[in-house]
Structure formats: C-alpha cells, structure tokens
Design a protein that fits this description.
Radius of gyration: 23 Å
CATH architecture of the largest domain: Alpha-Beta Barrel
Number of domains: 2
Order of helices and strands: EEEEHEHEHEHEHEHEHEHEHEHEEEHE
CATH topology of the largest domain: TIM Barrel
Largest sheet: 8 strands, parallel, barrel
Helix content: 25-40%
Distance between the termini: 15 Å
Strand content: 15-25%
Shape: elongated
Structural class: alpha/beta
Number of helices: 11
CATH superfamily of the largest domain: Alanine racemase
Strand order of the largest sheet: 6-7-8-9-10-11-12-13
Number of strands: 17
C-alpha cells in the first residue's frame, strides 16, 4: 500500500540552520548539424588536467543544524513539539510520510541568507529528491526554482506554479517532446551531448522560440562519494569533456535563431561533505567561462549543481552548511560578475521528514530475528538499493533491546 503524506505545519522556534527521440522525429526534416569536433582544445588554463583536491578539512562557519525530529527521554519520537504517536492516532492510513513544513522553510532560508549579495541567484530545488506535490507548492512559495530531469518533473513544476525562467532542465536523455515544452515555457536547458543539442535545436524550431542553454561540463573532479552518485568524473555518462567543448561552441554559433548560450553548468555528485571540492570545480568552471566569453558569448550564469551532504547518522558531526558552500565560491562568482545557480535536493528535504511505520509482528527464522512492519522498499528503497544507512526508533514498555532486522 502506498504511503500517505502528512505535512506538519505549526512552527516552534528553532534555529534557521540546515544540517530517446520520437518514432516520427520532426528533426528529420531539418539538416543535421554540419560540424565536426574541433581540434582547438582549450589549453590556456591547463583545463584538460584533473583538478587537485584540497586536503584541508572544511572550516564550518555556522553551527550544525538542529533536526526537527527528536527522541525524548521517555523514548517517544517528536516532530517539532508534537509526539509522532499522537499524529499516528489521527492519520487514517498507514504507513505515511511525515514532513515538517517549518523545517523546510528553515532549510530554504539557510540557502537564501547564504546567497545574500549575489545578484539574481537561483535556488533550483532538485525535484528528484522528493516530488511530493504539496512540498513543491511550498518551495515555490518560498521563491525556489526547480531542477528537472524528466518530462514528468517538468509537468509537475509547471503545475505547482514554479517560474519557468527559474527552472533548469537537466539530464542526458531528454526527449524531443519534453524539450518542446521546455522551449515553449522558457526553461533553461543544459546541453549534455551532441544528440542532445540536435534535439534542443529541433525543439526550438518547432516551438518557434530561442532556448537559453547552459553547457554541462564534465570537469573530472572526484567528489569522494559513493560511485553510484558521482556524476562529475571523467568516466561519468554526464556532461561535455574538455576535448569536445569547442564543437559545442561552434554548434551554438551555427544556430543563432535557436540557441542562446547563457551559462556553464557542472554537477559533481551527491552527499559531498567537503566544500573545497565545490571550490576546486568552481575554479575550473570560471576558467572555462573566461574562454567562452573570449569567443564572444555573453555568459551570465554559473551553475555549480548540488550535492551538499547531510548528517545521515545523526551523530552531531560538524558538516558544511549552505553558507560554507556559498562562501567558497562567492569571490569567484563576484569577480566574473556572474549569476549563481545552485541545485540543492536532499539538503533541503532530508532532515524534514520520516516514514512512519507500524509494527505488525515479530518472527524468528534460524538465528535471525525479524520485526515485520507495514512499510516496504516501495516506500524506502535506498537501504536495499545503495546499502544506505537508515535510522529507526522503536519504543515499547518494559522492552529489552535485541538485535533485529526490519522486514
């Protein structure tokens, strides 16, 4: 049974801190781009080499966030100042997701305050992190844009009322029909490959509108995270490598009626806990922008993606905050008179919610003890898929703790 949603709205006082183409492709009636990869590889700033990562630990300027979920001395779990068990008794269906609306607000405010002084910056919420419609509507009201990786997410963002000019369409498999909608609505589109660029050109012609594009560059920076969520290294499927970049610049120049190059984008990965990694990538990116501007392009945006890590283990570890992240790139952005785009996902939503399950029974097979609950991997797939850590609370009167496995 699918889990329901309950959004807790009241707000006690807590710190504002965070811990493939179509069968009938309309593009076929247009000439294929008459371009070949150029041998003019950028070398002025030695950009073809891998970035050297700083080994010094990040200096955290703001305190670790206070989680909206707490466990009281009597063993009960609270969300803000409300006992979760009391909420369970009022909710008709179980299991359910419980969200703290105030914590979502505080998380957005942490980014907003960190971006003060950086003109026209965009907080683009990565909808893939959580596409709950009520949450999307709330984030829109808070002034966020949206980061999209599918036509479904594009549709959700438009239905939720997000400003299309603050939406960014990512992904290396964007299809023509979705790109046409993006072009019609005025959404930023990140260019990821040669065929992707061809489809964007086709979409622009069909829509009769010029598309604002950013080039997604693969900077070959190791984010030092799980391989499944590393997206900015040399062998990643995402982005444009240095040796191919000139081809894309020539292609944009060849289509002035369809494309306007407005920025450069990179995304390194997820769960990054060293802000120096973002700084190293930003240094590379502004050097690329210098070269791109030298060829006559008016580039206004630097998109450094998302991926700020969170305290999964609830250990109280001092992790980088939004301000720490922004401060590492602030001077680079200001020195080039750029508008900054960031794409936070889990750092906006992860500490705001929990999946509330009910224990249906216990059993033992062999030497293993199981606690059977009414939830499943359909509601929480990450532990099974990524062998990721999850934390759970259980309370029972006069209960002696035993090692058990959730099932």
């Amino acid at each position: 049974m699918a889990a329901a949603t309950h959004l807790l709205s009241h707000s006690p006082s807590l710190p504002k801190t965070l811990n493939h183409p179509l069968t009938q492709n309309p593009f076929s009636k247009f000439p294929i781009l008459p371009l070949k990869p150029s041998q003019n590889v950028f070398k002025r700033h030695s950009l073809s080499i891998k970035a050297v990562l700083s080994q010094n630990p990040a200096k955290t300027l703001t305190p670790t966030f206070q989680h909206c979920f707490t466990k009281s001395p009597d063993g009960f779990l609270y969300c803000e100042d409300t006992k979760v068990q009391d909420i369970m008794e009022k909710v008709e269906k179980r299991p359910f997701y419980l969200y703290s609306k105030p914590q979502i607000t505080r998380n957005v405010e942490a980014y907003t305050e960190a971006l003060e002084g950086l003109k026209n910056s965009i907080i683009g919420y990565a909808i893939k992190a959580n596409n709950n419609f009520k949450i999307l509507q709330h984030l829109k009201k808070l002034g966020c844009g949206a980061v999209l990786v599918s036509g479904n997410e594009l549709e959700l963002a438009l239905r939720a009322g997000f400003d299309p000019t603050k939406c960014i369409f990512n992904g290396n498999g964007k299809i023509l029909e979705d790109l046409i909608i993006a072009a019609q609505e005025g959404v930023f589109v990140n260019v990821d490959s040669e065929f992707d660029l061809e489809n964007i050109v086709a979409a622009a012609r069909i829509a009769g509108r010029k598309v604002n594009v950013l080039l997604r560059i693969n900077p070959d920076v190791d984010p030092q995270v799980h391989p499944y969520v590393a997206t900015g290294n040399k062998n990643s499927k995402f982005g444009i490598r240095n040796e191919k970049l000139q081809w894309f610049l020539d292609a944009v120049k060849a289509h002035p009626n369809e494309l306007k190059l407005v920025g450069a984008h990179c995304h390194l990965g997820s769960t990054i806990t060293k802000v120096d990694i973002f700084r190293d990538a930003a240094v590379l990116m502004v050097n690329y922008i210098d070269e791109i501007r030298a060829q006559g392009f008016e580039v206004d945006y630097l998109n450094i993606g998302g991926g700020l890590g969170i305290d999964y283990y609830h250990s109280g570890a001092v992790l980088p905050t939004p301000r720490d992240l922004i401060d590492t790139v602030r001077e680079l952005v200001l020195s080039r008179n750029l508008n900054l785009i960031i794409e936070p996902g889990r750092s906006l939503i992860a500490n705001t919610c929990c999946l509330v399950n009910h224990v249906t029974g216990v059993k033992t097979n062999g030497t293993k003890n199981f606690v059977v609950i009414d939830g499943s991997m359909a509601e929480l797939i990450r532990p099974s898929l990524y062998d990721a850590y999850q934390i759970s609370w259980e309370r029972r009167e006069n209960f002696q703790p035993q090692l058990r496995e959730l099932a």
